[in-house]
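re: ur question from earlier - yeah i can do the single chain one, its not a big deal. heres the input i used so u can compare w yours
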Amino acid sequence: MVKGKILVIDDEDQLSKALSRIIELEGYEVLQAENATKGLKLLEKSNDFILVICDVKLPDISGLEVLKKIKAKNSSCEVILITAYGTIHDGVYAMKQGAFDYITKGDGDEQIIVTVEKAVEKAKLQKRILELENKLETRYSFDRIIAKSSILKNTISLAEKVAPTDSTVLIEGETGTGKELFAQSIHSASPRKNKPFVAVNCSAFPKELLESEIFGHKKGAFTGAYYDRKGLFEEANEGTLFLDEIGEMHPDLQAKLLRVLEEQTFTKIGDTKSTKVNVRIIAATNRDLLNEAQQEKFRSDLYYRLSVFKIHIPSLRERKEDIPLLVNSFVEYYSSKINKRILIITEEFLEKVKTYSWPGNTRELKNVIERAFILSENGKITQEHLPVEVLFPNDISRGNNLGTIEEMEKIHIQKMLRYTNGNKTKAAEKLGIGVPTLYRKLEIYGMK
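and the output i got, formated as C-alpha cells:
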C-alpha cells in the first residue's frame, strides 16, 4: 500500500533520481520535476501530494518562491528545502516562510528518511484537521437547511445577508423550528466563524444560576463559590453568544444584558471592576416579545436593542412542501446512525405526515421518523409506524374531551383491529406489543 505521494523538484538529474529511489523504497509514490515550472504544473493537476522536496537553487525561480506558491495553494502540503550550500540564516528564513525543514545535500539517507516521515506525519494530520473543519463548517452552513418552500428560502436569504455583519439578531419562531440551527449557520457564515459559538437556554436556569452562568463570579461571591469562574460572555469572547428563550430571562438580568449590548462590558458577581468583551449576540424566542414589551412583561429598551435585525422562522405547517425532503433527510440520518437500510417509504405514510399539523415542528417530525425507523421491518416504512396522534389527528382532537391516555390508546387499538380485519396477532404486531398484552388491554377496555 502506497503511504503517500511526494514530488521532488531538482535540476540535478542524478541526485533527484537517487533521492526519489530512497524514498520509493520506504513505500511512497514519487514524481520528479527538473524545474519549478514543471513542478508547479504537476501540483496544479493534483491535490494528492502530501510533501514536496525542492532544491533552493533552480534554473527558473528559487525554491523559496516555490515554497510560497505551494503554501498559498495547499497549506496542508509540507515542503522540505534542500541545498548544496546551507547556512543557519537561510534555514531560519526558510522555516519562517513555512518550510518543514531545510537540509543540506549529502546528508545521510537515514536522516533524510526520518525528516520525510516527520513531514508526512504532519501533512496528514494537517489534512485531517482541515477535513474536520470543512465538515464542521458544512454541518452548520445554510446549505444544510432543507428548503423547497419559498417562505423558508426567503428566511435563509435574510439570514445570509445579516451573517457577515456584527449586528445583533433576534430569531423568532415556534418551538422546534430550528432557531439554534439558524444561529449556528449565521455564526459559521460570519467573520467570527473560527471563534467560539456558545449557546445557553435561558429557561433552563433560575435567575441566580443564570447570572453566574452568563457573567461568571469571583471566589467567595456567594456560598459555594470556591473559585473564580468565567461566564459564557468571556467564553464567547471574539465569537458569538446565542441566548435561547430570551423571553424567560429575569428583568434584573435583562438590565445587565442591556449594558453589555451597549458597552460590551459587564461585572461578574462579587467583582468590583468591569470586564470588557467583544461578543456578537444572537437571541431567540418562541414568544411575541414586542407584545410582551408593550405590556411591560419584557424590557422594551432591551427588545429594541435585540431586534436590530429580526428573523422569523416559519412553522412546519406553513411550509408543507418541505416535509418529504425532511423525511428523506431524517431517514438517511438514521440509516447511518442505526445501521438499518430503508428502501421504501409508502405514499400513505407521506400523505399522513403531510396532512398533520406538527405542533412540535421539525423536532417532532424528526422524533416521529426515528420511531418509525425503529419499528420498520423489511426495509419499509408504512403509516402503521406512525404514533396515534399523527395517524388519527381528528380523533385525538375530539379526544381532548376524553382527557386520558388510556382513552387515546383504546381508540388506537380499535383502529388497528379494523385495519387488520380483527386479526389480533397482526394488530399486536402493528401496535408493537405482544399478543398477551393486547388481550389484557382488550379486557381492561371491555373490548373482548
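Residues 8 and 19 are 8 Å apart (CA to CA). not sure if urs matches, ping me
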